[in-house]
Amino acid sequence: MIELRNVSKTYNNGTEAVKNITLHIKPGEFVSLVGRSGTGKTTLVKMLVAEERPTEGRIILGGWDITRIKTADIPMLRRQIGVVFQDYKLLPRKTVFENVAFALEVASYSKKHIQEAVPQILALVGLEPKANEFPDELSGGQQQRVSIARALAHRPKILIADEPTGNLDSVNTREIIDLLLKINNFKTTVMLVTHNRDVVNSLRKRVVALEDGKIAYDQERGRYIL
Amino acid sequence: MIFLSTKRILKFSWQHFWRNIWLSIVTMTIIVLTLFSLTTLVLVNAIADYAVNSVKDTIDVSLYFDNSIKEETVQALEKELEKIEEIKEITRVSPADALAEFKEVHKDDADIQAALAELDKNPLGGTLILTAFNMDQYPLIMEKIKELKADQLAEKIDYNDHQKLIERINGFSNKLRNFVLALSIIFIFIAVLTVLNTIRMGIYIHRTEIAIMRLVGASNWFIRLPFIVEGLLYAIFGCLIFWGAWALALYFSGDWINSFLTGINFDIRAYFNSNILNILGFEFIIIAVINMISAVLAMSKHLKV
Ligand SMILES: Nc1ncnc2c1ncn2[C@@H]1O[C@H](COP(=O)(O)OP(=O)(O)OP(=O)(O)O)[C@@H](O)[C@H]1O
Ligand SMILES: [Mg+2]
């Protein structure tokens, strides 16, 4: 599903953020990407959604070589990968429903489809009762669930979460991780970028650890060792 | 699906317009001023053309004959002159008509009436008035008149081509035109800067929304078109506001403006009534192009994909 072949990324200022990474993630896998700050985790995520281009190597997603993807094709790619971040990136003047609907609106989905799909997704993340509330009326964990709901709007095959629990307490963190597991159960490939040792250790799923832009270890049922 | 997107893009454009309402107002004000300047330019051109044409219409050649020349001779000459193809029209004023007109013009002047009554013979001769199809043909007509020896027959030939007057009108209107043109260019320049700035602000205000649109896979035109349409909205509203104000101004002070132009018989209302579509089209296209170019410029600098 996700294939990186000898991928390196050097930023314009000379920072070598990712160095010769080769990684294969199968469809339906749940992978945790761990590593200290500044080891290139976010850089890797950005390359997967074509926000950054690799300096070397190739990236293939579901058979689609996106290494030299055309600007015009990037929207198509982003509809096939859902991404969530530590800061939920919600629109404060839109309700929960509208925030999720937004992803479908800008992709020219019909109003009918939106009216049907959004409540389903909100039900999946457990936010149906909050549909008409605004982001600042929600807890951090609820806001992140809205963000996840929006990332799922296009029913992507891949969901990437870059430190989704970075701003959350342990209870909310647990809820978000459980939600990601639930989504993974529906055959969505999930990549979780995290610093949270407890989370990684409790997951008992595949762990890929980065150190200084390189893969330090890659284990099935791994633990956070670094 | 295209229709749906169009509707949403219009909705986004409308939101851009409203969230930025003060800048929108400033932008439309500049557009209205630009339109005022452009309309003045059109008007100056029209009035100058009209003035020159009305002077040209008064150009003619008059041959005055002494009262000793018989009418038949004048009629014979008229027949000859009719063969000159450059001549559009010949008006013959007979001595009797000339006298009648003279009496009519001076009907309140007792002295002249008395003097005329003293005379038993008509003191006035006949006149032939020639007009050409266009003003360039007069020199040729003058030559042909000489060939016919009409200049010897006539007591006096009156030909005024109003060259000096036409030059003066053209000189004055060219100066005015250049001034208004320079003003229009300055306004267009300010309009470009204003629209550019407004759209740049719009991009800044909507930066989070734009970032999220990218994140969730909005196509580039979905992100960009609202700004271009926003530019078009300024053009449309600017034109509507200006044309509304202009129509009111014409309605209420058209007579007052016309009073300055009685000399050339120019009717500003009639002019705008008969040219409204051309002027509207010309101005809207200029304003719309200004706005869209500005929008594209603003995006190329501040909305990288
Ligand atoms: N746009 C950029 N230009 C230049 N250097 C960058 C840029 N983005 C990141 N870097 C550098 O690349 C390296 C990797 O950054 P990256 O954000 O991928 O780390 P990370 O593993 O996500 O860290 P964190 O856990 O703190 O989020 C860092 O040294 C960072 O300073
Ligand atoms: Mg990071």
UniProtKB/TrEMBL annotation, chain A:
Query: Can you list the GO cellular component terms from the UniProt entry?
Result: plasma membrane
Q: Which PROSITE patterns match?
A: ABC_TRANSPORTER_1, ABC_TRANSPORTER_2
Under the heading CDD domains, the entry gives:
ABC_MJ0796_LolCDE_FtsE (cd03255)
User: Cell division: is it a keyword of this entry?
Assistant: yes
The entry assigns this protein to a family as follows: Belongs to the ABC transporter superfamily.
Subunit structure of this entry?
Answer: Homodimer. Forms a membrane-associated complex with FtsX.
Name of this chain's protein: Cell division ATP-binding protein FtsE
Source organism of this protein record = Candidatus Kuenenbacteria bacterium GW2011_GWA2_42_15
The lineage is: Bacteria, Candidatus Kueneniibacteriota
From TrEMBL, chain B:
Stretches assigned to coiled coil: 67-94
- Annotated GO biological process: cell division
Task: Please report the stretch or stretches of sequence annotated as the ABC3 transporter permease C-terminal domain.
Answer: 182-299
Give the UniProt keywords, A-Z.
Answer: Cell cycle, Cell division, Cell membrane, Coiled coil, Membrane, Transmembrane, Transmembrane helix
Localization recorded for this chain is: Cell membrane
Q: GO cellular-component terms in the record? A: plasma membrane
Keyword match Ion transport: no
Residue ranges annotated as transmembrane are: 21-48, 179-199, 232-252, 276-299
Q: How does it sit in the membrane?
A: Multi-pass membrane protein
Family of this protein = Belongs to the ABC-4 integral membrane protein family. FtsX subfamily.
PANTHER family given in the database record: CELL DIVISION PROTEIN FTSX
Q: What's the name of the protein?
A: Cell division protein FtsX
Give the originating organism.
Candidatus Kuenenbacteria bacterium GW2011_GWA2_42_15
